[in-house]
Amino acid sequence: MMMMVMTMTMMMMMTMVGRVISQDYGDALTKSILFFEGQRSGKLPPQRMTWRKDSALDDGNGSNVDLVGGYYDAGDNVKFNFPMAFTTTLLSWSVLEFGQFMGSDLQSALDAIRWGTDYFLKATSIPGTVFAIVGDPNADHSCWQRPEDMDTPRTAYAVTTANPGSEVSAEIAAALAASAIVLQASDSQYSHELLNRAQMVFQFADTYRGSYNDVFGDVVCPYYYCDGSGFADELIWAAAWLYKATNNQTYWDYVLNNINNLPQDIKRIDTDGSTTQGGSFAEFGWDTKHAGINIFVSKWVMDRQLNPSPFIHSADRFICSILPESPSKSVTYSSGGLLFKPGPCNMQHVTALTFLLLVYSKYSNSSQRDIWCDNFAVSPSRLVQIAKTQVDYILGKNPLSMSYMVGYGNNFPQKIHHRASSLPSMDAQPAHIECQEGSQYFHSQDPNPNLLVGAVVGGPAEDDSYVDFRVDVSQSEPITYINAPLVGALAYFKEFPFS
Asked: pLDDT of 379-392, one tens digit each?
């Protein structure tokens, strides 16, 4: 009897050891949201990222409009509203799906969303005009300068009825609609304002169709968020979010009437100017919304038992394009297990696709359905397993035992490609640093003096190697739309760490 008790005790202990949580997902969640404070532009409130100070307080003055606020997208000092809106949409979607697991971090996530929407209300305040960019990308990228010191032009670029930009306008509409949903409980009046503006901006984007590529030329193409996939996906994406927010049948009809008009193959243009051609069903990012549309809409199709074509079919194909064991896999995996797609800054794909895996697992599990990849079934729990391997890799379970989130763990990137982080803070050096004076800090072998806590960098190469030096933009630059979907994934694994 004693031997049996001892054996059972040992088995229980072995089980507990086997289920030790490998990562502190709660800590990573807190830090992933904190990162957004370091990206803020404008007049800063009291905040935890204390080394950042006010910047770009005159934005919009040249156009007689207040464009102060918003986010810098990455390691530079330009406000690109197209990816900023996508970031805001995904932050909102993260809260919508997994906000109940965020605990005390939920308010910080809502604050991060509202910092974006406050700015977008300004950027869409003039009827028939949507501001798309603030700052001169070419001039900004020739300087290594703190946002607090900027000498470069703060030109405000707008799309109008005469010179439309449907992709940026529709993505802003999606961001406003998604934000309205998650902010409704805490501020119904503000949520109502966001939703009204979202509908107005969507109408503008749909009525006056055109690409902002044609309006801005080399201000955006080929290096600064050039739209390669067209604007039809953003219009459908925005309509889907508006339907979710309003339950207005008109928006659902818009989705149904236009979804089959999306091209089957698209061109994706990355921020280094490289292009990738591929099936649209497998793409999701700041430029391409196709997989996101199908996953997002699939819940309504499942719940109402609607025609599964094309949404469920395309969503399943997307899942099958990611699973390592799938015969139709279109991504690759490093020997250490990290998902890869062509182009720079691979972590943008890792976090976005990981988030979609978790969302689709949630929807499919709720409907008690498996996903079929050719002749074998994939359970919803398998999607969670794949998602967890990606999150764990980011947080340090990889061949280098390196966390790719700044400030998380003991071994993380020290020399990230980020102007504000790499230059002396205003507290440390109040004197103005000129445009070219910052070059010495860019080339310095020293770690960045200011810790951009929570920033997730572009990540390792396909052989799992990583160059910790800010000159390597693709590997060392953090970007807001890397973190936005990761917030949702971390909230999920905080609640279900043994998944």
From this structure: 999 999 999 999 99
